Amino acid sequence: MKLLNSPIDSFNYLERQIYVKRDDLLHPEFSGNKARKLAYFLEHDFPEIDTLISYGGIQSNLMYSLSALAKLKKWNFIYYCCKPSEIALLQKKGNLAGALANGMQIITVYSKLDDYVKNLNIHNNQLLIMQGGAQPEAMYGIKQLAEEIITWSAKESISSLSIFLPSGTGVSALYLQKYLPKFKVYTTNCVGSKEYLIQQWRDLELDGNLPIILPNHKYRFATPYTELLEIHQSIYKLSQIEFDLIYDPVGWKILADNLHQINSPILYIHCGGVIGNSTMRNRYDYSMA
Ligand SMILES: *Cc1c(COP(=O)(O)O)cnc(C)c1O
After folding, report:
1. Could you give the CA distance from residue 67 to residue 30 in angstroms, rounded to a whole number?
2. Is 272 in the pocket of ligand 1 (CB under 6 A)?
């Protein structure tokens, strides 16, 4: 299965024309940068594998895409995570509900997840995909994304372009910059600190060109903030595009605050994740009630 060539839309925001790479439209089950990060696994055969193993957050966008990958490949899918709450397990929509419906098996871990997984004995029939898909195979699909951007910019005669996407692990931003050496990739840290993001990059690639971080000092990951909900809604009004509620509101806020420093045309990468919006919307409803 090949997922390629998402369209590019544009809209006006703060008197700027912003282009949006619609990777959210790639495929209903493999959307956004998760589709790009998993392209290598989607497009190759793994005859010796019958079980996919991964770990991470219980509402993770990657977890859902992995469950779709496993279903497509007819693999078992084992996911290590912290104990999900009763409420989370009862939800009918969202990443967890979708992944369970796709056959994901959960194994609850009570100690530190990273250490636990490091000590797992992975057999020849098992494929381990790291949290957030932070591994070199992600280069394959991100390179395809970069090539689509190069083709588009040449066709539009855009010689200087700035690309923006919010970061979790930072893998997507890192590899995009790697394959777009003529363009500047900007990002912001949504999960940890700016230093965490740089460390992630150093762990994957010792040298090379790094994206530019527009630092987020304020917003904690997956936490409701009134101003973030407001920016999410105003972007929707202007663009008629639904963005994800976890990464993108931080992305748009930080981009808006720093827009004056970016002179060239801006291409915002829609990284998908909209399937998780129902559970994040519940969190907003709860925090504002
Ligand atoms: C996973 C995700 C990101 C972050 O991607 P990384 O490669 O981990 O930095 C950003 N936006 C959305 C919607 C995502 O699902």
Report:
1. 10
2. yes
User: Worst-scoring range by mean pLDDT, 87-101, 137-151, 257-271?
Assistant: 87-101
Q: Is 38 in the pocket of ligand 1 (CB under 6 A)?
A: no
Residues 127/131/133/137 CA torsion (nearest 10 deg): -50
Rounded Cα distance between 103 and 19, Å, is 37
* HSE value, Cβ hemisphere, 13 Å, CA-based, for 26: 30
Report how far ligand 1's centroid is from the alpha carbon of 221 (Å).
12
The DSSP H or E segment spanning 188 is: strand 184-189
pTM above 0.90, yes or no: yes
Partners of 11 in the β-ladder: 18
HSE at residue 112, side-chain half, CA atoms within 13 A, is 4
Provide the pLDDT for residue 167: 98
Q: Is the pLDDT of residue 1 over 90?
A: no
How far is the C-alpha of 87 from the C-alpha of 198, rounded, in Å? 35
Q: What is the DSSP string of 27-84?
A: -SSS-HHHHHHHHHHHHS--TT--EEEEE--TT-HHHHHHHHHHHHHT-EEEEEESPP
Q: Quick one: average pLDDT of 176-182? A: 97
CB 8 within 8 A of CB 255: no
Q: Are 210 and 198 in contact (CB under 8 A)?
A: yes
